[in-house]
Amino acid sequence: METLRPGNFAYGLVVSLGAYFVKKIGALSRLADGEIWNVRSSVRVATRAFRMYNLMTIDMSEPPLIICFGDSLTAGYQSPSPVNPAGRATPYGHMLEKLIGPRARVAISGTCGELTGEMVMRFRSDVLRQRPRYVVILGGSNDLGYEASPQEIMRNLLKMYETARADGIIPIPVTVPSIRVPDADNADAVSWLRHHIAGRQVLNELILEYARLKQLRSLNLFAATADPQSLQLAARYSNDGLHLTTEGYQLCATLLYEHIFRTALDH
User: Fold this and answer.
1) What CA–CA distance (Å, rounded) separates 177 from 221?
2) Considering the entire predicted model, what is its pTM?
């Protein structure tokens, strides 16, 4: 890891910027109003430079870090079943790590039952301070269960996407998978199911549109795991109607590797 010491580039960068701003700030009282904009522009440039320095000081001798961040779908939660009476956890992050091998480290930060607003609150400590190269963000399923609007959820996701990007971290947006209610055989149940699937579709389109706009790689987990006719979570991927089976979590890991990290880690 590069440290601040006389003679190296980082030291020269910090000293030069520091001297520049001492000079500029000392002259502010003599500037006309129209000139203050130039100083503010310089501050923005310097802020970007310090972010670049933050990236430079990452220990490049270690493989890059990928953080899988989210709720119970990131924790890999599976409800108790006849096969696994105590329930189990099969995080896709563990499966992704096996696929990637020594090319990267993978850390899992998933909290069961968490809302996106709560994810925002711990994003700095659990993601930014760890200084990953990538953060895979999957959240919103619990919010939808509490009838939060897709737009409200997206505002929280945007805070995490943009905070990561401002810190030099590449976010990987993941859409929320569908749900499954196989015995929805009356009008009320069908209406409830359609309502909740539609909410997921609206949120997921917002997520994918953001990724397109920012030219980010993303994973459409909804499309990958939904039954194409009913749009419910496919039976083979449904553990309890909300969480994934081991096969579903494995599919998430495989798609992340094949479509994103197989080539992204080469750059």
Assistant:
1) 6
2) 0.79
